[in-house]
Amino acid sequence: MKNIKNTFINPTGLFNPINNGFSHIVKIPTGKELYFFSGQWASDDNGQLVSQDFEEQVRKTVSNVKIAMEAVGISINDVVKQTVYIADFTSEKKNILIEVASKEWETENFPASTIVPVPLLATAKGCLIEIEFIATK
Predict the structure, then answer these.
(1) What's the DSSP call for residue 11?
(2) Which of 30, 33, 93, 108 is most exposed, with the fewest beta carbons within 10 Å of its own?
(3) Angle subtended at Cα 51 by Cα 43 and Cα 124, rounded to the nearest 5 degrees
(4) CA dist list (Å): 4 to 31, 92, 111, 114, 119
């Protein structure tokens, strides 16, 4: 049952979200395991923020997401929902996120996704991005 694929749906009547890197709906078949991941951010393995630069934080956050996924034997293709928190959100930061993520993550289908602008993140002083996600296997 675990080999049955998730279904990614972008209904007619809603805008095409592919250029923004997400799908409107993801259907998970019965019998798949769900993995809920805590928010990952631009920390080194000692829990210290690696940079004040947003683009560098995105790169490290994406790297940390990959490490978490690899620990349980999944890939970006198994992610069905992501929530991205961005401190002091701007459209420039959104564009940087999309640009960096599209280079780092090659995926067959985009997960359902939400970007949440926040005034600050509780992870570390100066942290500008956090990504949490749900995956199936």
Answers:
(1) -
(2) 30
(3) 50
(4) 9, 38, 16, 25, 40
User: Which structure tokens are listed for 66?
Assistant: 């990959």
Residue 120 backbone phi and psi in degrees, to 5: -160, 165
Average pLDDT taken over every residue of the chain:
90
Quote the pLDDT of residue 2: 57
Long-range contacts of 116-120 (CB under 8 A, 24+ apart): 116/83, 116/84, 116/85, 116/86, 117/86, 117/88, 117/89, 118/85, 118/86, 118/87, 118/89, 119/87, 119/88, 120/87
pTM of the predicted structure, to 2 decimals = 0.85
User: Would you say 31 and 137 are in contact if contact means Cβ atoms under 8 Å apart?
Assistant: no
- Determine if residue 17 is left, alpha or beta; phi over 0 gives left, psi from -120 to 50 gives alpha, anything else beta: alpha
Strand partners, 79: 135
